[in-house]
Amino acid sequence: MDLSSTPQPNPDRFGHSAGAGQSVLVVDDSRAQRRMLTVQLTRWGYRVTEAESGEAALRLLTDTGFDLILSDWMMPGMSGLEFCRAFRALGRESYGYFILLTSKSDKAEVADGLEAGADDFLTKPVSADELRARLRAGERLLAMQRELVEKNRLLGAALGKIQQLYDSLDRDLIEARKLQQTLVRERFRDFGGGTASLLLRPSGHVGGDLVGSFVINPRRVAVYSVDVSGHGVASAMMTARLAGLLSGASPDQNIALTSAADGRRDAWPPELVAARLNRMMIEDLQVDQYFTMAYAEIDLATGQCMMVQAGHPHPMVLRHDGAVEVLGQGGLPVGLIEGASYQRIALRLFPGDRLMLVSDGITECPDPAGQELGSEGLQTVMQHHAAQPSPQLLETLVWDLVRHAGTDEFPDDVSALIFDFRGGG
Q1: What is the distance between the alpha carbons of residues 295 and 120, in angstroms, rounded to a whole number?
Q2: Taking residues 333-347, what's their average pLDDT?
Q3: pTM reported for the whole predicted model
Q4: Domains of the chain by start residue, with CATH
């Protein structure tokens, strides 16, 4: 074995000096061979441990980790090849660079060594220059592995902080969902001359849909369905703002309400309510959002109904005889075009008739093939379940959507309002 050449340590690109701090396990049944290698490796700055067999080396490895391993191939008992396989089976966290010392040069035998987990080979007799070159190659690989482990540690720490932020945000969104649900406290309301049944189901933590009703005066009520553009927190904040502007609990803040000449509470016509909201969105709020809306005012005594459709899905009337009437021409969304005008829809409800306002989360709900439920599909559902009371009809509508979509995770918020007219209010 030629170990006469003794190169001096030089720092590598990772800042480590050759051999500095590296631990080497030398495994050979020949004491002379071990000592020759140990003397040279120690001169190069390595920390060297000797083992006289593969079995002894494995016992050392149960308690101590080594950066580099030099093992003879031909040893009594456990061969170097068997030792290499057993070493790789230990499942160490850090990598160990394994060099087999052998007089074998057959390509098949070299392939066996690589298959067993060896990283490199040195042919006996070993020259110092070649040994040092192979060790430096192993050191570079180990340095890259340490660098990768450190980067993974930093990445894991960063992901941990992101997870903490996500968990905090998730808790906040859960609370926000609870708060948003309070915007529709009464899912069923009896006005005497009619009732309003409400459905609100966000597709995420929070949504941009809103349905509701309020009393104008003892004879007249208003019902509405709103769908704010986009999803998430910004849309939810806009629905909260609109809920305040269309609230019966705070009539002074309600954008639809006004006072008659005799001081009694009155309301702007539906088309002016939409125009006032459009002006507020563009001139006052100046946000990039817009919303669609269906808004109706109903006389509880006569059934006379005034309505506006502002880019919302078509309102429908399910007559007491089972016929379905689709209303409106579409109209412009609110907050999209400055100075937009809106057309009034006039109709009359008779006792037993039901007015239905829905968001596009229902009409545009796709099946697995991408086919939307559509207005006709909604009509079919309404007619098929017309015998059910409105609260149950809304629950059935959700189940029909689940069957249609093939999932209960809808791509958009789902909301609806059904007003049952009794008359005589």
Answers
A1: 79
A2: 94
A3: 0.63
A4: 23-151 (3.40.50.2300), 185-421 (3.60.40.10)
